[in-house]
Amino acid sequence: MRTAISILCAAMLAACAIHQPPADHTSRFQAETDRVRAEFEFPGMTAAYVLEDGTIGTAASGLADIEANVPMTDNTRMLSASIGKSFVGALCIALAIEGRLALDESVSQWIGTFDWFRRLPNHESITLRHLLTHSAGIPDHVHMNTFAEAFSKAWQETGNPFPPERLVEFILDEPTLLPAGHGWAYSDTVYILAGLIIEAVTERPCFDQIQERFLVRLGLLDTSSADHRDLDRLAPGYMLPDNLFSIPCMG
Question: For domain 81-215, which CATH number applies: 3.40.710.10, 3.20.20.70, 3.40.50.300, 3.40.640.10?
Answer without folding.
Answer: 3.40.710.10
